[in-house]
Design brief:
With about 280 residues, this protein is an alpha/beta fold. It has a domain of about 190 residues: TIM Barrel (Alpha-Beta Barrel), CATH 3.20.20. About 45% of the residues lie in helices and about 15% in strands. It has an eight-stranded parallel beta barrel, surrounded by six helices. The relative contact order is 0.16. The structure holds the ligand O=c1ccn([C@@H]2O[C@H](COP(=O)(O)O)[C@@H](O)[C@H]2O)c(=O)[nH]1. The ligand O=c1ccn([C@@H]2O[C@H](COP(=O)(O)O)[C@@H](O)[C@H]2O)c(=O)[nH]1 binds next to strand 8 and helix 11. Pathway: Pyrimidine metabolism; UMP biosynthesis via de novo pathway; UMP from orotate: step 2/2. Keywords: Decarboxylase, Lyase, Pyrimidine biosynthesis. It catalyses: orotidine 5'-phosphate + H(+) = UMP + CO2. Its EC number is 4.1.1.23.
């Protein structure tokens, strides 16, 4: 990995390849529709099919750890191998594992995913702040050392999210607002795009929260969950240029043909380029 901070590398990658992030979510129904068995071998064929088709042309990939964990150590081995291959091809990898625990345990996750020589070393990791924003400190420290990034859950795309995320903290702001405040502070010195991002679903329609955190805004929920490229402008307002639009099933459903995957990714990238101003 270059020594440049994640935010700088992310902006450069999106400038070069377009803003699209392809989620790698090997659902059982997708393996089936690709004519593959719901086994670790099927998982490997599916995942490497996506990697071979798209690694040299898409800026960012977001493998969903759950679908690899489903197959135990054999599945994790596929995740490790795919992450290495994607990064070798010049793409950035955000592992979506939504890790979060007390600080001392968080340090274990940080050394697995963020440390430069960690077994699952990636460019950024999704993390959960629900043990307190401060519990993320070991991951923040490791990310700074490694030039990696974090995406902290703030306003998630699922309909249950507001139940907690819109609740007020003792200090006054909502839970989501407190997360965004924490991220803004971490990115305070960033020149363009900081390395500490928020997860904000493309499905939330609009928000009163201040999304200007000087960092990336990972936006899942596009396609299968109903979010659209055009809708991003309304959700994100002036912060739209910092959005990393992530789409999984919508793109993956085009496979197994490499040409069809490339076509689906190119069309999505074009739509996002227009809305995000790339
Ligand atoms: O708020 C969130 C946070 C994460 N996700 C993850 O993104 C993908 C979405 O997949 P699609 O097939 O594009 O719907 C999946 O891995 C989720 O766990 C999210 O959807 N919302």
């Amino acid at each position: 990995m270059s020594n440049e901070p994640f935010g700088t590398r992310l902006r450069a990658a999106m400038d070069t390849r377009g803003p699209l992030c392809v989620g790698i979510d090997p659902h059982a129904h997708l393996l089936d529709s690709w004519g593959l068995p719901d086994t670790a071998d099927g998982l490997a064929s599916f995942t490497y099919g996506v990697v071979d088709a798209l690694a040299d042309r898409v800026a960012v990939f977001k493998p969903q750890s759950a679908f690899f964990e489903r197959f135990g150590s054999a599945g994790i081995a596929v995740l490790e191998q795919a992450t290495t291959r994607l990064r070798d091809a010049g793409a950035l990898v955000i592992i979506d594992a939504k890790r979060g625990d007390i600080g001392s345990t968080m340090a274990g996750y940080a050394s697995a995913y963020l440390a430069e020589k960690g077994p699952l070393a990636c460019d950024a990791l999704t993390v959960s702040p629900y043990l307190g924003f401060g519990s993320l400190q070991p991951a923040i420290d490791e990310a700074r050392v490694a030039g990696a990034g974090l995406f902290v859950l703030a306003l998630t795309s699922n309909p249950e999210g507001p139940q907690f995320q819109s609740a007020r903290t003792v200090a006054g702001p909502t839970v989501a607002g407190a997360v965004l405040d924490g991220l803004r502070a971490l990115n305070a010195d960033a020149e363009d795009l900081g390395s500490f991002g928020a997860v904000v679903g493309a499905t939330i329609s609009s928000t009163d929260e201040d999304l200007d955190i000087r960092g990336p805004l990972l936006a899942p929920g596009l396609g299968a969950q109903g979010g659209t490229a055009e809708g991003l402008a309304e959700v994100f307002g002036p912060a739209v240029r910092n959005v990393v639009p992530s789409s999984s099933r919508e793109i993956l459903g085009a496979g197994p043909s490499a040409a069809a995957l490339q076509d689906a990714a190119a069309r999505a990238n074009d739509a996002f380029r227009t809305v995000l101003g790339y």
